[in-house]
Amino acid sequence: MPRPPQDTTAWVADRIAETTDASSTKVTSPFTFRVNREDRLPSFEVLVLSASRVTYEILDPLLEDARSVSFVVNVPKNGIWTESGIATARNHDCAFGGIGELMSAIHQKLEDVSLFIKKENAFVERGLDQHSNVSHFDQEYDRVYTVHRPGMKSLRVVLLNEYELTAEHVRTARTNYGPFDIVLMTNPNGTPTKDALETAKTMQVAILAWRQFLGRLGSR
Amino acid sequence: MSDNPAYQDILVAIHADNPSHTAWYGFGSFFRESNSFSDIDVLAVCADVERASAIRQEMATVCNDWPVHLLIMTESEVEETNFIQSQQCILLLKPNGKR
């Protein structure tokens, strides 16, 4: 039986209250809680959900009922933000992510928490923006981009931030996102195992670190 | 740690996985009793990649209810990376179900 939403919301609110930068939290509905911050920073509202895939259909009704929310937290560590889920959060002027991202947003002491963007995505998007072989890119999921290159084949790229990148990570990415060309290791200390490399090879997928990825964007 | 409802649910889920040949470990900030954890790191070690896919499915409910970072490695990957020693993993359940 799924865990009642109010229990999950209360648990997340407790976790956030225990972080040093949040002075207190208060549950305001089964799906929301308020974060009261120190240093005269404005308080803000958080929406909590537990979805394996965050879509428009799941998120929009919750945000329509909670108009003052600035941050949407999806509890599952491996939860997937679909394109429609991301668009829904942005259309409601909300930042989004997991509990770790909410903690980062609080730690950054942003005046307006809704402006928070996950560091991993911001870094990759800036690199793509500045690459001479990239005309534009589309974000299909929080971890998947299609990169368009003038006169060359577009590349479908999955971001994986694991320290030890295993065969199971590669297979799960394929199950979750369908076929792709590249696994981009966004953890600078990340290393693929031999099994991960072998699995990727059978899928005709390249596992690349950041600098290798930038080079690959320039080749056919 | 032991009275945390997330930890209790994880223990129930991994015991339900028996009688498999999976070894279960905890690692990371939650198991170091740190207050600032954002997820709960759990390692499953199994014989091959086919079994790894089954474990991911079997753990889907608890991974949807809680911020569980489930890392699944084959025995050869664990040996290759020396992960259990380097991350000071704590044994939660032996493959045969004995603590």
Overview of this protein structure:
The complex is a heterodimer of chains A (220) and B (99). Helices cover 35% and strands 30% of the residues of chain A. In chain A, helix 2 runs parallel beside helix 3 and helix 6 runs parallel beside helix 7. Chain B starts with a helix and ends in a 6-residue tail after the last strand. By secondary structure, chain B is of the alpha+beta class. Chain B is 39% helix and 23% strand. Chain B has one domain: Beta Polymerase, domain 2, CATH 3.30.460.10. Chain B is globular. The mean pLDDT of chain B is 88. In chain B, 43% of the residues are buried. Chains A and B meet through helix 1, helix 4, helix 6 and helix 7 of A and helix 2, helix 3, strand 3 and helix 4 of B.
Give a brief outline of the structure.
The complex is a heterodimer of chains A (220) and B (99). By secondary structure, chain A is α/β, with parallel strands linked by helices.
> Percentage of helical residues of chain B?
25-40%
What's the story with the biggest beta sheet of chain A?
Answer: 5 strands, mixed
What oligomeric state do the depicted chains represent?
heterodimer
Rounded mean pLDDT of chain A is 95
Give the percentage of residues in beta strands of chain B. 15-25%
CATH architecture of chain B: 2-Layer Sandwich
What features would you highlight for this structure?
heterodimer; A: 220 residues; alpha/beta; 5-stranded mixed sheet; elongated; B: alpha+beta; 4-stranded mixed sheet; 4 strands; 39% helix
How are the secondary structure elements laid out?
The complex is a heterodimer of chains A (220) and B (99).
Chain A: H1 5-17, E1 22-29, E2 32-37, E3 44-49, E4 53-54, H2 56-64, E5 69-74, E6 80-81, H3 83-91, E7 95-97, H4 99-107, H5 119-129, E8 136-141, E9 144-149, E10 152-160, E11 164-165, H6 167-177, E12 182-185, E13 191-192, H7 194-202, E14 206-208, H8 210-216
Parallel strand pairs in A: 3-5, 4-6, 5-7, 10-12, 11-13, 12-14
Antiparallel strand pairs in A: 1-2, 2-3, 8-9, 9-10
Helix pairs in contact in A: 2-3, 6-7
Chain B: H1 5-16, E1 23-27, E2 40-46, H2 49-58, H3 60-65, E3 68-74, H4 75-81, H5 83-86, E4 90-93
Parallel strand pairs in B: 2-3
Antiparallel strand pairs in B: 1-2, 1-4
